[in-house]
Specification:
The chain is α+β, with helices and mostly antiparallel strands. The chain is built from 2 helices and 8 strands, in the order E-E-E-E-E-E-E-E-H-H. Strands 1, 2, 3, 4, 5, 6, 7 and 8 form an 8-stranded mixed β-sheet that branches. Strand 6 and strand 7 form a beta hairpin. Helix 1 packs antiparallel against helix 2. The longest helix is centred in the C-terminal third of the chain and has 17 residues.
Amino acid sequence: MATLTLEVVTQERTVVLSEVEYVLLPGTDGKFGILANHLPMMASLAIGVVEFGPRQGRRRKIALGGGFMEMHDNRLTVMAHTAELAEEIDVLRARQAKSRAEQRLADRKADLDLARAQIALQKALLRLEVADEN
C-alpha cells in the first residue's frame, strides 16, 4: 500500500514523524481524510481527534488542540496548537480538568469567561476520548 509522511509538530516538539497509509483530520468544516498522492492543500484544523496508521492493523490517535495542515509532495505536516498521543495522556489529570471545567460552567460567576470554560471542557473530554477513558 502507498504511504505518505505524517509530521505533527507543536511549538515545543515533534509529536509524530512517521510513514502512514492514511490520516483522518478534524477540519473546521468537518472531518476529512488524506491518503498517499493527495493533491497539495492547506486547511485549518479544529479541536478533535487525529487518527492515522496502516489501513489494516493498529491505528493511532492524537488529541489535537486545533491548528493547520499542509499536504505537499506526499508529506502531510500538521502544525498544532497542542497535540498529545493517546499513550501520553494523563487520564487522572484529564478527569480533574473535566471536573474543574464542569464546576466553572455550573457556578456561572459574573467574571466567568464562558468561551474559555467551554473550550477547557471540550479539550478535557477529547483527551479522555482519545485515551479511551470516557
